[in-house]
């Protein structure tokens, strides 16, 4: 399955069950672990669990078998590893505490700054 198709499947699965604040982060230049991270919020532990279950179900239907699912027991944060994509579904307080968007986007900003040529000294 192509990554663009997988992105559509995952985002559709999250949208179908009304995930909140869905964000996609391209991390291809930042890590070799995965290409994309999708972060979404659920309104309760039950909603987080249902969202992650729907992502797993829709991915399987599309022919992409998840490599793993972590955190289902607590319902605070569930991670679905789809290989080229990792999906994080969290309750808002957990999402705010870990602030993965800032973490990964800051890393991307630092990397971009490091790649810019140094200004000539006068």
Automatic annotation (TrEMBL):
GO terms for cellular component: cytoplasm. Keywords: Cytoplasm, Repressor, Translation regulation. Transmembrane segments: none annotated. Gene3D superfamilies: Beta Polymerase, domain 2. GO terms for biological process: cytosolic ribosome assembly; negative regulation of ribosome biogenesis; negative regulation of translation. One of its GO terms (molecular function) is ribosomal large subunit binding. The keyword Cytoplasm applies. Pfam families: RsfS. Its main location: cytoplasm. It is found in: Cytoplasm. PANTHER family: IOJAP SUPERFAMILY ORTHOLOG, MITOCHONDRIAL ASSEMBLY OF RIBOSOMAL LARGE SUBUNIT PROTEIN 1. NCBIfam families: rsfS_iojap_ybeB. Interacts with ribosomal protein uL14 (rplN). Functions as a ribosomal silencing factor. Interacts with ribosomal protein uL14 (rplN), blocking formation of intersubunit bridge B8. Prevents association of the 30S and 50S ribosomal subunits and the formation of functional ribosomes, thus repressing translation. Belongs to the Iojap/RsfS family. This is Ribosomal silencing factor RsfS. It comes from Halopseudomonas xinjiangensis. The gene is rsfS.
